């Protein structure tokens, strides 16, 4: 990778997942992500960096590299939230791609429609459609 694409968004999540390129491909199918940049995989099939654009923001991915102090740990205590319009279409695309429903889409006490999914890599995603 010779140049770095621009980072989008004021806060960027960086996920360590088992199979960063597979996760990137899943996020393309499930959430319409674009691969902005990716380092080539090593002889073990791992990549140290993938930069995605998802819904107007950047998301970074890497495979675990325990030999460099980055072991795989199960995702916990966070949810990635996508602010969307047409939540039903976003939901269906993610489920069709292989995401699992955690909390079905419903109108919430704050007035928005909201639901949660888990991707095949263990990451929890929320979809939120603001009340129009």
Uncertain runs with pLDDT below 50, 5 residues or more?
none
Strand content: 25-35%
**CATH architectural name of the largest domain:** 2-Layer Sandwich
Distance between the termini: 41 Å
Give the topology string: H per helix, E per strand.
EHEEEEHEEE
What's the rounded overall pLDDT mean? 96
Helix content: 10-25%
Helices, by number, come to 2
Number of domains: 2
Give the tally of β-strands. Answer: 8
Query: CATH topology of the largest domain, anyone?
Result: Signal recognition particle alu RNA binding heterodimer, srp9/1
Q: Please give the order of strands in the largest beta sheet.
A: 1-4-3-2
CATH class descriptor name of the largest domain: Alpha Beta
Largest sheet features: 4 strands, mixed
Mind telling me the C-alpha Rg?
Answer: 15 Å
Describe the global form: globular
Which class of secondary structure composition applies to the elements?
alpha/beta
Brief digest:
The protein is α/β, with parallel strands linked by helices and 132 residues long. The protein contains 2 helices and 8 strands. It has helices at residues 20-31, 87-97, and strands at residues 13-16, 34-38, 50-54, 57-62, 80-83, 100-107, 113-118, 124-129.
């Amino acid at each position: 990778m010779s140049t770095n694409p621009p980072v989008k968004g004021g806060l960027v999540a960086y996920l360590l997942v088992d199979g960063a390129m597979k996760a990137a491909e899943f996020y393309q199918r499930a959430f319409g992500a674009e691969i902005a940049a990716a380092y080539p995989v090593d002889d073990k099939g791992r990549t140290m960096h993938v930069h995605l654009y998802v819904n107007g923001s950047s998301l970074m991915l890497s495979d675990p590299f325990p030999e460099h102090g980055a072991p795989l740990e199960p995702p916990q205590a966070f949810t990635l939230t996508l602010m969307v319009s047409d939540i039903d279409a976003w939901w269906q695309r993610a489920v069709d791609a292989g995401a699992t429903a955690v909390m079905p889409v419903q109108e919430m006490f704050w007035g928005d429609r909201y639901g949660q999914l888990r991707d095949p890599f263990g990451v929890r995603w929320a979809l939120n459609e603001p009340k129009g």
